[in-house]
């Protein structure tokens, strides 16, 4: 189950919505070692135990996140450093481990919504593109910072960002390290909408989350699975998979409840997703 306290996050669950807040504003919510370990633990705990129907991720302080904490780059290296081939193999696996911290957002059965404000830099771009929907405040700005520190982004920006914005924009941002403001982010499709203040942003995103949480969880997770599947497969393959999905999980009782609730002018009552067994039988 969820812990009472985390180093890099604050977690609350209300109205079937889990709200994960980055909680290191004094460090611009940079992504330290605790961040990389705690985020997948929190998300998988919520998802595997069906603790919520939607996850909202936001931040605290002046900025959403300034990206990777420099301590991650300066961590002590093992004695085998003299052998660059051995070190290269170890580095590759370390990168895969960091990548998996954001893969959990895409793999989660429930939608993951992002509320962005202030600076959204470097690793924060990797993070928000692994979610389902993004909104921001009018003061937000976005930057693929890695090129500005002489490296290539490697945690997920490139395979994911070009799904949401035109390839030309991905390349311009990746090659130049320029910032784009909230208006441009909305224009090119990175965010759905812009709010004037952080308070209005959270209220709006949480309202959307509660609306999603009121829908049939099985239909919502089916929509996420099939939209993501269609992104990576042909139309014919996706239509076939949709047919298989509904062959197994078409839910007449859930649909009957939806019709009855509409007729009776009340909110429908749907079963939550089942917890997932994470230990061997």
TrEMBL record:
GO terms for molecular function: isomerase activity. PANTHER family: ENOYL-COA HYDRATASE (PTHR43149). Belongs to the enoyl-CoA hydratase/isomerase family. SUPFAM superfamilies: ClpP/crotonase. Keywords: Fatty acid metabolism, Isomerase, Lipid metabolism. GO terms for biological process: fatty acid beta-oxidation. It holds the Pfam family ECH_1. Pathway: Lipid metabolism; fatty acid beta-oxidation. This is Enoyl-CoA hydratase/isomerase family protein. The keyword Secreted does not apply. The keyword S-adenosyl-L-methionine does not apply. It comes from Hyphomonas polymorpha PS728. Coiled coil: none annotated. Gene3D superfamilies: 2-enoyl-CoA Hydratase, Chain A, domain 1, Lyase 2-enoyl-coa Hydratase, Chain A, domain 2.
């Amino acid at each position: 189950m969820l812990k009472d306290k985390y180093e890099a996050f604050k977690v609350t669950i209300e109205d079937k919505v889990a709200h994960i807040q980055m909680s290191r504003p004094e460090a611009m919510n940079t992504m330290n070692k605790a961040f990389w370990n705690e985020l997948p633990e929190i998300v998988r705990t919520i998802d595997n135990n069906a603790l919520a129907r939607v996850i909202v991720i936001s931040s605290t302080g002046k900025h959403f996140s300034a990206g990777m904490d420099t301590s991650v780059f300066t961590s002590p290296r093992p004695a085998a450093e003299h052998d660059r081939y051995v070190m290269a193999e170890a580095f590759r696996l370390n990168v895969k481990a960091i990548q998996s911290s954001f893969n959990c957002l895409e793999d989660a059965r429930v939608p993951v919504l992002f509320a962005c404000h202030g600076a959204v830099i470097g690793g924060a771009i990797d993070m928000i593109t692994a979610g389902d929907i993004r909104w921001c405040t009018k003061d937000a700005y976005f930057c693929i910072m890695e090129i500005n520190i002489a490296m290539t982004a490697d945690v997920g920006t490139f395979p994911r960002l070009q799904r949401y914005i035109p390839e030309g924009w991905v390349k311009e941002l990746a090659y130049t390290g320029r910032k784009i403001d909230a208006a441009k982010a909305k224009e090119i499709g990175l965010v759905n909408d812009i709010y004037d203040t952080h308070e209005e942003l959270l209220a709006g995103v949480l309202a959307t989350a509660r609306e999603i949480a009121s829908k049939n969880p099985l239909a919502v997770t089916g929509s996420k699975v099939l939209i993501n599947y269609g992104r990576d497969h042909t139309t014919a393959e996706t239509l076939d998979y949709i047919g298989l999905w509904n062959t197994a999980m078409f839910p007449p009782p859930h649909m009957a409840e939806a019709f009855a609730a509409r007729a009776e002018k009340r909110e429908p009552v749907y079963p939550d997703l089942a917890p997932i067994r994470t230990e061997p039988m």
